[in-house]
């Protein structure tokens, strides 16, 4: 055992050592406390930073989901391409236009994808199937303002294109209509004199002579020309319609009887489907019959070797005409319409038929417009054509509804009766 130092100097040194040790321990304890406090502060700051980072990640994820939702909800097709023109992202609208799914677009060259669909980036409208699109490319800038990616935008402008065609057609037809009306009146006056003199010759000439036959041929030619002029005047004359409620099935049945001369010329498999939700049509019955007859005759003429002819009547969403409406459709499986002729098909005198006058569809267009309706045409060469007449269909009054119910009782029209009546109608046309 070591004895305590007895020398005062040694004790003083020992005390000094203890004091120094105590001071060092105290300093160390203070440093440890400060370090502990700093660590706790750093833990709190780190926890705060982590929480802020988690919030930012949640916000970024929510923003990403929102932007994805916005991108997928756009009616404009979007392709995101990098600096090598490789597709990195697409939305549903682009996939719908191009007819492919997202996995088939990823990591492919944009030019190759567009070329396969017959499209290219450019200012001019382009047609893909029944859709008209405009395709443009815009740069995509990052936060620093650099452009490393691009957006290829595929805008469906089908309806705008149709409206532009309708506007151009209206201007063209208005000018032609005025000219046609004047010419028709000028021709009709001397034509009446020719008809009068031909009739007088027929009366004065002996039977079974060459002169009398010539006079008869003159008279027939004048009558044909007069019929053509009558159609011209019908087309150019403003149509004033006295519309009323007419039973849909009866109107279409009578129209088919008027068109039976064309239907029976070729083997036609005909289907008629009338929605029970549209028992009545608000129209001028005579004018609408002419529309149906012209469309059916055109459809049959487009199937020289026979085919399928379908007529349907359904309700139409009110937003189409900004009012309640119905859609009357005539569909054939014929030769289709050349895309180069689409913009002129309702022009008077435009026809691709050897014996056509080019007035049938022009008159159809005029009558539909007089009904404040619309005519839509979809056609694929070699597959057929669908003509849709969209007509206003105001809410029927109580009196018209009662009249229709009474007509149903008299005709026995129900869902089963309607199907049977279609079969009877086809048989009736076949017999005729």
Task: Tell me what the structure shows.
The chain is of the alpha+beta class. The strands form 3 sheets. Strands 2-1-5-4-3 form a 5-stranded antiparallel sheet. Strand 4 (131-141) and strand 5 (147-156) form a beta hairpin. The protein has helices at 8-73, 92-98, 102-105, 110-116, 158-204, 210-236, 248-258, 260-263, 285-301, 360-370, 398-411, 415-431, and strands at residues 77-81, 87-90, 122-128, 131-141, 147-156, 244-247, 268-274, 280-283, 307-316, 325-332, 374-380, 384-392. The chain folds into 3 domains: 76-156, PAS domain (Beta-Lactamase, 2-Layer Sandwich), CATH 3.30.450.20; 161-236, Helix Hairpins (Orthogonal Bundle); 244-431, Heat Shock Protein 90 (2-Layer Sandwich), CATH 3.30.565.
Summarize the topology:
Layout: H1 8-73, E1 77-81, E2 87-90, H2 92-98, H3 102-105, H4 110-116, E3 122-128, E4 131-141, E5 147-156, H5 158-204, H6 210-236, E6 244-247, H7 248-258, H8 260-263, E7 268-274, E8 280-283, H9 285-301, E9 307-316, E10 325-332, H10 360-370, E11 374-380, E12 384-392, H11 398-411, H12 415-431
Parallel strand pairs: 7-9
Antiparallel strand pairs: 1-2, 1-5, 3-4, 4-5, 6-8, 9-10, 10-12, 11-12
Helix pairs in contact: 5-6, 7-9, 9-10
Q: Report the CATH C-level class of the largest domain.
A: Alpha Beta
Q: Topology as H/E string?
A: HEEHHHEEEHHEHHEEHEEHEEHH
* Oligomeric state of the chains in view: single chain
Radius of gyration using CA atoms only: 41 Å
Task: Estimate the helix proportion, in percent.
Answer: 40-55%
Tell me the number of strands: 12
Count of discrete alpha- or pi-helical segments spanning 4 or more residues? 12
């Amino acid at each position: 055992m070591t004895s305590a130092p007895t020398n005062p100097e040694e004790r003083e040194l020992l005390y000094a050592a203890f004091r120094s040790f105590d001071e060092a321990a105290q300093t160390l304890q203070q440093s440890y406390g400060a370090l502990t406090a700093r660590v706790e502060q750093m833990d709190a700051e780190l926890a705060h930073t982590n929480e802020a980072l988690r919030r930012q990640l949640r916000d970024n994820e929510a923003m990403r989901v929102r932007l994805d939702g916005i991108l997928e909800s756009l009616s404009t097709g979007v392709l995101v391409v990098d600096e090598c023109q490789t597709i990195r992202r697409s939305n549903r609208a682009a996939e719908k236009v191009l007819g492919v799914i997202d996995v088939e677009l990823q990591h492919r060259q944009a030019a190759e994808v567009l070329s396969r669909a017959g499209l290219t980036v450019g200012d001019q409208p382009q047609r893909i199937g029944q859709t008209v699109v405009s395709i443009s490319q815009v740069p995509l800038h990052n936060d620093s303002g650099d452009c490393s990616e691009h957006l290829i935008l595929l805008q469906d402008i089908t309806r705008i294109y149709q409206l532009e065609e309708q506007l151009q057609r209206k201007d063209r037809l208005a000018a032609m209509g005025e000219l046609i009306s004047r010419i028709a009146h000028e021709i009709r006056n001397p034509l009446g004199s020719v008809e009068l003199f031909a009739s007088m010759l027929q009366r004065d000439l002996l039977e079974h002579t060459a002169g009398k036959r010539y006079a008869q041929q003159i008279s027939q030619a004048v009558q044909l020309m007069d019929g053509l002029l009558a159609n011209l005047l019908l087309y150019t004359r403003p149509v004033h319609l006295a519309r009323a409620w007419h039973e849909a099935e009866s109107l279409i049945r009578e129209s088919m009887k008027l068109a039976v001369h064309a239907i029976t010329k070729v083997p036609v498999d005909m289907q008629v489907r009338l929605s029970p939700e549209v028992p009545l049509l608000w129209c001028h019955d005579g004018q609408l019959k002419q529309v149906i007859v012209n469309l059916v005759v055109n459809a049959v003429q487009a199937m020289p070797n026979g085919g399928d002819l379908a007529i349907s009547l359904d309700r139409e969403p009110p937003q189409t005409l900004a009012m309640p409406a119905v859609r009357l459709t005539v569909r054939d499986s014929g030769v289709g319409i050349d895309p180069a002729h689409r913009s002129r098909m309702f022009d008077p005198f435009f026809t691709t038929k050897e014996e056509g006058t080019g007035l049938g569809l022009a008159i159809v267009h005029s009558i539909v417009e007089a009904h404040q309706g619309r005519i839509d045409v979809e056609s694929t060469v070699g597959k057929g054509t669908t003509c849709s007449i969209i007509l206003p269909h105001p809410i029927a009054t109580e009196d018209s509804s009662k009249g229709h119910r009474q007509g149903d009782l008299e005709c026995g029209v129900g869902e089963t009766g309607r199907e049977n009546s279609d079969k009877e109608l086809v048989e009736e046309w076949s017999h005729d």
